Amino acid sequence: MGAVLAAAACWATTAPLLALFLRDDAVDGVTLALLRAGTAAAFLWFWLAVTNPQRLKISRADVPALAGFGFWSVTFFYVAVSFGVAGTSASVAITLLYLAPSLVTAGGALWLGERLTGVKIAALAMSLVGIALVVRLNHPGSLAGTPGGIAWILLAAVAYAGYSLLGKRLLGRYAPETIIAWYLLFGAFGLVVIKALASPTAWPEPGRLAIMALLLGLVTTLLPTSFYLFSMTRLQSSEASIISAVEPVIAVAIAAEMLGERLDPVQLAGAGLVLASVVLVNIGEIRRS
Fold first, then answer.
1. Long-range contacts of 262-270 (CB under 8 A, 24+ apart)
2. How high is the pLDDT of residue 51?
3. Contact criterion met (CB below 8 Å) for 20 and 219
4. Which helix (H) or strand (E) holds 153?
5. For the residues of 76-90, what is the DSSP string, one character each?
6. Residue 277: Cβ within 10 Å count
């Protein structure tokens, strides 16, 4: 359980750190996404090359699938999260990202033939109502962010959901660290292309760049992934998912302390509904298993 909580705590720093760097360093979202993916990919490839190079071998036939997975789950997702945080806030962004489990439920029913139970339908409804409250759809004149920022973070939630749906076939063929290494590599390559086209000369000064790279690449990416994979050897995946659902709670607390962000009572109620929907979906998974 400790490893899952450690993973959740590391992941919870993502949105607050992005918001902090965007605010204090005048750096763009593409640069932050590239630093995150590039650093994580470099460290993981070096580690596997030294400790277990066999884990880096893949079939040539799977290159297109892994490349597509990387472009979707890293290139698009990381950019969408960065732009979403820039247009909303760390607290709102991390809450909206937790629409993803409900989207996985809907996607599994539509494309994978998974059964859509009453519990899953209830969880989906709860998450949608919760999202509406968090972004203040009940008060359109005072949305919790720009329309573009809200749209970006909702697209990030779709990408996050796709991560689970697209990864299922690959997990049957390769170890998790193999998939992570390759999708990070392809995703980082996609971000290099976007960076070269969008802002090739805009970089933070070297000292700040190193800090950003280490915090985003290691603390928000490699460390939590490692903790989570370790926990999966000791807990069922659904149990681990429930425990890791404390991530938005930790993220909101960090954002309040680090950035002075506060959710109003209605937004907190909405966040509670989103969190409850995640727990509800995973309780259903535990009962079936």
1. 262/91, 263/91, 263/92, 263/95, 263/134, 266/133, 266/136, 266/138, 267/92, 267/95, 267/133, 267/134, 267/136, 267/144, 269/130, 269/133, 270/95, 270/129, 270/130, 270/131, 270/132, 270/133, 270/134
2. 96
3. no
4. helix 147-171
5. IHHHHHHHHHHHS-H
6. 27
CA–CA dist 25, 6 (Å, integer) = 28
Alpha-carbon distances of 94 from 48, 81, 116, 171, 225, rounded to whole Å: 31, 9, 26, 26, 17
Residue 60: HSE in the Cβ half-sphere, 13 Å Cα cutoff: 0
**Cα separation, 68 vs 51, whole angstroms:** 27
What is the reported pLDDT for 58?
94
Stated pTM of the model: 0.84
Q: What is the pLDDT of residue 122?
A: 83
- The Cα 128–Cα 193 span in angstroms is 35
